[in-house]
Design goal:
The complex is a heterodimer of chains A (about 325) and B (about 300). Chain A is mainly α and about 325 residues long. Chain A is built from twelve helices and two strands, in the order αααββααααααααα. A two-stranded antiparallel ribbon of chain A has the order 1-2. Chain B has one domain: MetI-like (MetI-like fold), CATH 1.10.3720. Chain B starts with a helix and ends with a helix. The chains are: A mainly alpha (about 325), B mainly alpha (about 300). At the A-B interface, α2, α4, α5, α6 and α7 of A face α1, α2, α4, α5 and α6 of B.
Chain lengths: ~325, ~300
């Protein structure tokens, strides 16, 4: 009897469970390491063949077996940045509306609807972009912009070209719609972390809603807001299916925002099925994947550092 | 800001001052109204995008929706095929991907919340998991291709499941850790004080207490991978024939939509819209269900 009472529970279960948990944790590290190593090794023949020239060559010529990363890297960064320029003001407006302006009963349904925008699969955005946005762009937006802004000196050159509807700007617009919910949700969450006392004090002094936003909420949440924006950038960089439908898929540096182009992800998705195992082309695609991973990793790492709790102000 | 504050608090009495502060007040309120209006417009635009997507899907998809689509496999153009093999393939791959990814994600989340906390290893795993959460899914497809497809000489359904599992893991990690973190320490202490070993305290006390949050995370993961196209292009490839074998290429709804939407045949494009309608409303329904589960506990 006394033996039964003093008998301590066995430690074996604890050791097994803790071991399993730790092993799973290490598996995540192995996964990340594996992705980096596999993409790098896969791209190694291309890196060896072209050297640093891979980064600055605008070739993509399967016949001559000459490949370069310049065009897709350019397209990836330009579309993502343009998308960010369009998405940030809208996302900010939505977050501001949801935290300060909307009636309380209205906040949850609207917030949920905006979040559902993030749940729509990327291929659906591609189809929507291709069948809805592209015709609007080709018939109304592009002819109008080409005839008005396109006639201006200096900047006009960026707004010319044939109005096909597809192209860099259309891709950036679809990307913008896709990243709005991510940025808006992050902004809303960090706006909600501002202590009520701060806001009430400002209102008590007679500030308008906008003044409270500009002078209290934004300075208080500045760092996290930037983190949320960069998170949106990270999302836009790697988006594949939506971009593939609307960017025009041409391996040429677009000189106008209506020009066709490609991104790393769209090029990989399109060219991959036509690449033989062991070919230099496949290796170049894996090398592009490695570049995309490095770019995304850096962007996401910055975003996470800014969003980390306690990284305020 | 500070300028407007001192001005509005100006000394009353002097007529000049009053009219100046009134003008300032009007300007401040006008600016406020403009910004508020812009915010309402921004929110309206966001809702308009969602409405436009849903309307387009219903408008173009509902006409082609019929029992034939749900009971027939994909056939050559012009022969009244359906989407059965794609739907079944998607269900199988989503289910298996979630089945493989969830336990791993659950254990990683448990490790971060209960064991590692803010140790160096814990921070590293948390960081890597968060990066994986937002990493381009097409790269996960390339990774699994190089790991499971190229060495074995063929696209397989199981490779598709593996790619989806990799996407599931960080989603489940995030929600599991967050939800376990919400459980009061006193609950764990109570379990341990009764003599329960730590693992039993976690499995029998913490998991049930965090159940709703964990289920929400799993549902969100299902919703996310069910619509994934890019990682499946290089792993399970797609299959126009009926096949349940995990060792062969396997059809999936998103990949079929991708192949059909870009084709020149009208009936294939119509089927793509039907597939798009099914997948989107399925994914959104799971998402709403996930929110419902989470709210049930509060």
């Amino acid at each position: 009897m006394s033996q039964a009472i003093t008998k301590r529970p066995s430690n074996r279960g604890d050791a097994i469970f803790a071991g399993l948990a730790r092993l799973s944790g290490l598996l995540v590290l192995v996964l990340m390491g594996g992705i980096i190593v596999v993409l790098f090794l896969g791209g190694l023949p291309a890196f060896k063949q072209f050297g640093a020239g891979f980064l600055i060559s605008d070739d993509w010529d399967p016949v001559q077996n000459s490949f370069g990363a310049l065009v897709p890297v350019f397209g990836t960064i330009v579309t993502a940045v343009l998308a960010l320029i369009m998405a940030v003001p809208l996302a900010f407006g939505i977050a501001f509306y949801l935290t300060e302006l909307a009636p309380l009963w209205f906040r949850r349904p609207v917030g949920t609807a905006i979040e559902l925008l993030a749940a729509v699969p990327s291929i659906i955005y591609g189809m929507w972009g291709f069948f809805v946005i592209v015709p609007i762009m080709a018939e109304y937006v592009q002819p109008f912009v080409i005839d008005s802004v396109g006639e201006l000196p200096w900047i006009g050159a960026f707004f010319q070209g044939p109005p096909f509807g597809t192209g860099i700007l259309t891709a950036a617009m679809v990307l913008a719609v896709m990243i709005i919910p991510f940025i808006a949700a992050t902004m809303r969450d960090v706006f909600d972390t501002v202590p009520l006392v701060f806001k009430e004090s400002a209102y008590g002094l007679g500030c308008t809603t906008w003044e409270v936003m500009r002078s209290i909420v934004i300075p208080y949440t500045r760092v996290s807001v930037v983190g949320g924006i960069i998170l949106g950038l990270g999302r836009a960089l790697g988006e594949t299916m939506a971009v593939t439908f609307v960017i025009g898929n041409t391996n040429r540096i677009a000189t106008t925002i209506f020009g066709p182009g490609n991104t790393i992800a769209s090029l990989v998705a399109l060219e991959f099925p036509e690449s033989e195992t062991g070919s230099l082309k496949l290796s170049s695609l894996l090398a592009l994947g490695f570049l995309l991973f490095v770019i995304s990793f850096i962007v996401l790492a910055i975003s996470r550092m800014l969003l980390k709790p306690g990284a305020k102000a | 800001m500070s300028a407007t504050m001192t001005a509005s608090g100006g000394v009353p009495g002097a007529a000049k001052n009053i009219s100046a502060s009134e003008a300032l007040g009007r300007r401040r309120h006008r600016l406020n109204t403009i910004v508020r209006t812009l915010c309402v417009i921004a929110t309206g635009l966001g809702l308009l995008f969602l409405a436009s997507i849903l309307f387009t899907l219903i408008y173009r998809g509902i006409g082609g929706l019929s029992l034939v689509v749900l009971t027939t496999s994909t056939l050559p153009p012009g022969s009244h095929g359906g989407l059965l093999n794609a739907i079944v393939g998607s269900v199988i791959q989503t289910f298996l991907g979630t089945l493989i990814g969830t336990p791993i994600g659950l254990m990683v989340g448990t490790y971060l919340s209960e064991y590692a906390q803010h140790s160096k290893l814990g921070d590293a795993i948390r960081f890597v998991s968060d990066v994986l959460l937002s990493a381009p899914s097409i790269l996960i497809g390339l990774f699994i291709f190089a790991l499971l497809v190229a060495p074995f000489g063929g696209f397989t359904g199981i490779a598709g499941c593996a790619a989806l599992a990799v996407i599931v893991i960080p989603i489940v990690v995030r929600t599991t850790e967050d939800m376990l973190g919400l459980i009061p320490v006193a609950l764990r202490e109570a379990a341990v004080a009764l003599g329960a070993p730590k693992w039993k305290a976690i499995v029998q006390v913490c998991y049930p207490a965090a159940r709703q949050g964990i289920v929400t995370g799993i549902l969100l993961a299902v919703a996310r991978v069910a619509g994934e196209t890019a990682p499946l292009l290089f792993t399970s490839l797609g299959n126009l024939n009926w096949s349940l074998s995990l060792g062969k290429p396997m059809a999936s709804l998103p990949v079929t939509i991708y192949q059909y939407a870009g084709s020149a045949f009208e009936d294939w494009v119509q089927l793509a819209w039907v597939g798009a309608l099914l997948i989107t409303f399925g994914v959104l329904a799971i998402n709403i269900a996930a929110r419902f589960v989470l709210r049930g506990g509060k």
